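Have a close read of this protein, sequence plus C-alpha cells, and explain what the C-alpha cells say about the fold. Thanks in advance:
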Amino acid sequence: MSENTLQYIDNNSIVHRADALSKLAWVLIVVIFTFQFQSAAARGIMLASLLILAIVFARVPLAAILRASPLIFGVALLLGIFHLLITPGETILFSFGPLTATQEGLTKGLEFFFRLAIMVMASFMLIWTTDIRELMVGLVHLGIPYRYAFAVFMALRFLPIVQQEVDAVKAAHAIRGRASSSPIRHRFRLWQRYLFTVIVNGLRKAESTALAIESRGFGAYPDRTYVKEFRWTATGILLMLLFLSLGIFLVFWERQGI
C-alpha cells in the first residue's frame, strides 16, 4: 500500500461498496450530530464508532490510520490544550507559569478536541473508501453542473499529488542536509523552501491540466455522458441510517443524563 495518507485505498470492503453520495451524506450526518452533542462521552462514542468502522468494516490498515494520526488527532489535541489553558473558570486544576488550567477549560478543550478529530476522521474515511470518479458522477446525478462536479474531482485528485510533492522535496532536502537533525530555525527555513517548491510545482501541474482540459473541448456541451452511471446502494443507505440512529440515541441519552 502507498505511503500516501490522502488517497483512495481499494479494499473492496462493505464501506467501499457503498455509493459515494451516501458516504458524503454520512459525513454530513456525523458532523451535524457532533455539534449537537453536549458531553464528551457522546463525542467519544462517536469517535470510537468511526475508528471501529474504519478498522473492522472498511478494513483500512492500521498503518494508514497511524500515518494520518498527526492530522486527525494532532491539530485537535493542540486546539484542545489551547482552550484548556485560556478558558477562565472557578475550579483550578493546575498552573503552569502564567497559564492556568481549569475544569471549565478542560470541558471546553475536550469539546473542541472531539469535534475536530471526528470531522477530520470522517473526512479521511470518505477519502480512503470513495473513488472520486464515483463522487463526481453522483454529484452530477444530483443535478450539479458537471463543470462544478469536475472541479471537486480535481481538488480531491490533487490532494495526494501535493502530498507526494511534499514528501519528494523533504526527501531531497534530507539527503542533502540532514533536515531531521537541524535546529528549529533551520527547519523553519526548510519548510519555507518546501512551500515555495510545492506551490511552483502545483502551478505547473494546474497549467498542464488546464491545457489538457481545453484541448479536449471540456465544457463545450451542456451535458456529458459517463461510462458508469450512479446508483444508490443498500449498504450506503444502511450506513446513513445506522449513524443517524446512533446520533439520535446519543442525543436522547445525554439529554436524559443531564
User: Anything to note?
Assistant: The first strand starts at residue 92 and ends at 96. The CA atoms of residues 90 and 102 lie 7 Å apart.
